[in-house]
């Protein structure tokens, strides 16, 4: 009689194949350097991406290889032009060789340790209760090509066959078919298809760049139904599969782009220039705080630069830049407005000759500058009221003693060091 493998637990050596499809046809994956990575290649354990380390169970001895094929993996998931939709299907294909014979009717499960970069996405839930597991496509299946004396056996996974170990970040697939005449060194396979793009779109969670700036790491194995794999030993036997580049989700880059503000920004400036914004994003310039009033907006160009028309700001004002796309909002690049010590222009008035009692309006070139109004003949200084934004002022001629009329009032703009040329207002008697 063939002995059960439940005391041994691990049934397979491993070969994990990963693919990402972004077109209607199935396209598997190609590595950055090669079409395949053989068993002889050594994994640099110091450069691994952060990965869960499940609780060790019974020890195992395995050997295997990890291969990569296809052409589209280097592109990652695709974003629509307006960034509102993400598309792309992740294919995880596991092939292993049994290291022991199986008992008659033996049932198994496939376990896949997902990269730690996926963990936030896999723990999200939509408003209507969907989780990452709902985006594992119904075409996913388990396959035993050598079952029953050479007769293949295929089992298509149902939703209830799939679970997720949140603590250890492990996908578990119950292979609900009894296997027969499976001896050592026989092939068993699991093929998992995940609508990764739709999962990202619906769950609203992006996949970070690979933590080691090199690759995303998976581990896979088929075990008996009760087994808790010792992943450290399985890893030593090279069960890992790696997506060999560091940016699976371009949306992660976009949502984390912080727009910059080119400096210096002067108190005389009416434009802010900056960069590092996603192409087509809306850039907002705010004053005084991250949620302060918006003083200018712009649309970023294809190279990420932008030019925003702004309301002039006083020297010392802190500016904040944020960018918004369909993926969300990210900020903040900052800059402090600096004082421009150039000689200011002469004040502008909406009249050059008025009758006593009329209020005259004027403009200031730069917030923070002051306006002086002095009687040309008596040298008396008159009151000038400056607007809250510092860009305009009013002058009430009724404050002038009517006994000195007609008279000329001289207006000058001051920045603390420099004084503008004069602007003259003639004030005539009333009547």
Structural account:
It is a single chain. This protein is mainly beta and 431 residues long. The chain has three domains: 15-253, no CATH class; 257-338, Sandwich (Immunoglobulin-like); 348-428, Immunoglobulins (Immunoglobulin-like). It is 6% helix and 36% strand. The chain has five helices and 29 strands. The strands form seven sheets. Strands 1-4-10-6-7 form a five-stranded antiparallel beta sheet, covered by helices on one side. Strands 8-9-5-11-12 form a five-stranded antiparallel beta sheet. A five-stranded mixed beta sheet has the order 14-20-19-16-17, with no helix packed on it. Strand 19 and strand 20 (328-338) form a beta hairpin. The chain starts with 14 loop residues before the first strand and ends with a strand. Residues 268-336 form the Bacterial Ig domain. Residues 1-31 form the signal peptide. InterPro entries: Big_6 (IPR041498). Keywords: Signal.
Strand content: 35-45%
Mean pLDDT: 81
Helicity level, as a percent range? under 10%
Number of domains: 3
Number of strand elements: 29
Oligomer: single chain
Most strands sheet = 5 strands, antiparallel
Total helical elements: 5
- The structure class reads mainly beta
Report the uncertain regions: 1-11, 22-72
Radius of gyration: 35 Å
Shape: rod-shaped
Distance between the termini: 125 Å
Strand order of the largest sheet: 1-4-10-6-7
InterPro entries: Big_6 (IPR041498)
Keywords: Signal
Protein name: Ig-like domain-containing protein
């Amino acid at each position: 009689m063939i002995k059960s493998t439940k005391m041994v637990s691990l049934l397979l050596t491993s070969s994990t194949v990963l693919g990402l499809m972004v077109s209607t046809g199935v396209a598997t994956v190609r590595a950055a350097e090669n079409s395949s990575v053989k068993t002889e290649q050594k994994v640099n354990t110091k450069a691994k991406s952060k990965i869960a380390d499940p609780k060790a169970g019974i020890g195992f001895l395995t050997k295997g290889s990890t291969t990569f094929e296809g052409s589209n993996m280097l592109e990652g998931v695709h974003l629509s032009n307006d960034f509102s939709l993400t598309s792309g299907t992740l294919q995880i294909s596991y092939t292993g060789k049994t290291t022991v014979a199986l008992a008659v009717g033996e049932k198994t499960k496939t376990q896949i340790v997902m990269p730690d970069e996926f963990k936030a996405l896999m723990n999200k839930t939509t408003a209507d209760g969907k989780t990452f597991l709902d985006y594992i496509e119904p075409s996913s299946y388990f396959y035993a090509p050598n079952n029953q004396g050479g007769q293949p056996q295929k089992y298509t996974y149902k939703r209830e066959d799939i679970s997720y170990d949140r603590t250890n970040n492990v996908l578990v697939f119950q292979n609900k078919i009894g296997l027969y005449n499976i001896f050592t060194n026989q092939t068993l396979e699991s093929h998992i298809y995940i609508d990764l793009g739709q999962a990202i779109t619906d769950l609203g969670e992006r996949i970070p760049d690979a933590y080691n700036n090199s690759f995303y790491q998976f581990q896979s194995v088929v075990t008996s139904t009760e087994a808790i794999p010792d992943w450290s030993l399985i890893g030593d036997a090279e069960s890992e599969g790696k997506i060999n580049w560091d940016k699976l989700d371009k949306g992660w880059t976009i949502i984390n782009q912080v727009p910059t503000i080119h400096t210096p920004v002067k108190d005389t400036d009416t434009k802010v220039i900056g960069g590092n914004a996603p192409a087509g994003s809306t850039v907002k310039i705010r004053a005084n705080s991250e949620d302060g009033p918006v003083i200018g907006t712009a649309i970023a160009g294809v190279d990420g630069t932008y030019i925003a028309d702004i309301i002039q700001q006083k020297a010392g004002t802190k500016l904040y830049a944020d960018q918004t796309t369909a993926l969300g909002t990210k900020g903040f690049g900052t800059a402090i407005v600096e004082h421009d010590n150039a000689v200011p222009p002469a004040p502008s008035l909406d009249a050059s000759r008025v009758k006593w009692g009329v209020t005259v309006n004027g403009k200031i070139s730069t917030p923070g500058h002051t306006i002086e109004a002095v009687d040309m003949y008596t040298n008396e200084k008159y009151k000038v009221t400056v607007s809250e934004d510092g860009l305009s002022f009013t002058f009430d001629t009724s404050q002038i003693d009517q006994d000195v009329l007609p008279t000329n009032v001289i207006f000058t703009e001051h920045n603390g060091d420099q004084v503008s040329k004069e602007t003259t207002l003639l004030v005539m008697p009333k009547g």
